[in-house]
Description:
By secondary structure, this protein is of the alpha+beta class. The chain has one domain. It has five helices and four strands; from the N terminus they run βααβαββαα. The protein has helices spanning about 55-65, 65-80, 90-95, 120-125, 125-140, and strands at about 35-40, 85, 100-105, 105-110. The protein has a four-stranded mixed β-sheet. Helix 1 packs across helix 2. The longest helix has 16 residues, at about 65-80. It starts with about 35 loop residues before the first strand and ends in a 6-residue tail after the last helix. The relative contact order is 0.17.
Amino acid sequence: MRSATPGDERDLRPPVAITAAPSPGDVGRRSVWRRSTVVPRLLEDAGVGFPPHHPFVRRFWTAVVGPGAVADLLRLIAAARAERHLPRPDTLPTLAVARLVLLDGGTVWVRPSVPPLGGAELRRMAPGLKAEHQAQVGRYLAGEPENS
C-alpha cells in the first residue's frame, strides 16, 4: 500500500491510502447492490377503490404506510398497466402487510384502484384524520366532486 507523499499533488490533504478500493470479492454497501426485478400484474378490481391519482391515496395511505411506500405502490400500478418489470421496491413487505399488494413468488399483484383504509389502519389514526377519512369516503361513494 502506498500513501500520498508531499509533492505528488496530494499534499493539500492528509495522507490517504491510494489502494483503498475493496477487493473484487467483497459484497459492498447495500446502496450499490443490484435489486432483483418484480413483475407487477393487475388483479381484477371487485371492491370499492380510489383511482391512484386521487388525492385520497396520498392523504390517508401516506399516514399509514409512509410516503415511500405510497410512491412505490403508484409505480407498481403504473408498471402493471404498462406490462413492464420494475426493480423490487424496498417497501414491498410494508405494502403486503397493508394488503395493498399480494406477493406470489416473483409476481406482485396490485389492484388498479386503491381501497379505503380498513379497521386496523383507522384505529391507529388520530380522531380528526379518521373523521376526515370517513367523510371523504362518503363523498366519493355518493359521487360528489372532490375538493382539492
